[in-house]
Amino acid sequence: MYHxxxxxxxxxxxxxxxxxxxxxxxxxxxxxxxxxxxxxxxxLADIYPDRTPLMGYYDEENPEVCDWEIKWAVEHGINCFIHxxxxxxxxxxxxxxxxxxxxxxxxxxxxxxxxxQKYMKFAIMFEASPRWGGTDxxxxxxxxxxxxxxxxxxxxxxxVIDNKPVLFVYQQQRLSTCFQSAESQxxxxxxxxxxxxxxxxxxxIIGACYYRPEKGFHDDLMARGYDLRFGYTAGYKSPxxxxxxxxxxxxxxxxxxxxxxxxxxxxxxxTASCFWDPTPRYSKRWCDLGYRFRDNSNIWYLSxxxxxxxxxxxxxxxxxxxxxAWAKRxxxxxxxxxxxxxxxxxxxxxxxxxxxxxxxxxxxxxNNLPDYRTPRDQGFGSYNTSWKxxxxxxxCKNMLKKKx
Length: 404
Prior knowledge:
The protein is α/β, with parallel strands linked by helices. The chain has a single domain (21-403), classed as Glycosidases (TIM Barrel), CATH 3.20.20.80. The protein is 32% helix and 14% strand. It is built from 12 helices and 13 strands. Strands 1, 2, 3, 4, 5, 6, 7, 8, 10 and 13 form a 10-stranded mixed beta sheet that branches. It has a 3-stranded mixed beta sheet with strand order 9-12-11, with no helix packed on it. The longest helix is centred in the middle third of the chain and has 18 residues, at 246-263. 48% of the residues are buried. The model has no long low-confidence stretch (mean pLDDT 91).
């Protein structure tokens, strides 16, 4: 029965129930040529076959790819994707269009045309570095807010809490240089909230990506007008190049969470990280682009079982907090699809669905029955018209070589 197409449409998702927002960070760089600073799956095809997605290499702009991702995510408790949002630097100070975005296909071509989009909330994380256009007091109100409002915030499946759309901000340290002062940034954020009220909302919720437990920085962020802090990763760094003590990794991530909550238990959102292995970005090509990952990163893995243990411990920590604590309402997952940077939970040849199963078992009521048939099993795909395609027999040979 395998590989026989018995129906013309992907089976409907069967979402798992959770008592909180479970939001996975999402890096939409898997359309040919979209990333710019790397070559996507072509950087992995010959050397890292174990990082092949379970559906095979895919054209991310295809809405059917997004349907599979939504199905897999919601059936395991993930109910929100936080999309990295970039504008091209030359767009600064100008009205924004879809053509002015880097990697905008993940939302505008795939998600917005996916049949299952109603099952999944989404939010944007503004990549605020001046490298990607930055902003300032005028640009944010006159150009960014109108685009965000009309294209995202007003959509039924955008993440809105207490009638306030949620905007996440990455690299606040760099964004702060775009404003004249902390007071100016807060005034601009307050103007964004006023703009949202004019559009029928009760304001906005703005979160800053900063996971380090440093009270001075936390206080500065709040003075700049942020409502909460979060991490793109858990912020864990092992004390050596390769660290295999999984209990220490679980403890390290939980300790980092507790340190952040000690600074402000109401305004910090936890992020659970599955592993960190940016080996593909050690290449000469990446170094020529100015990246020095080996200087500031290392390699560590949590098994799916230990990842489940981590999630349960983070949930227990957050469950003990006051009712209005953000950690009690939301947990973030690092990461859905950072295939080359080396932290992903999307189904892969290396791990199958195991990290997703860990999330389901730790954070949901397990009230559903996930569908573990791959697209290929059901006669769907291939979704690859752009990338190098490693022969499957060669994939198996390479995996055996690595084990031996």
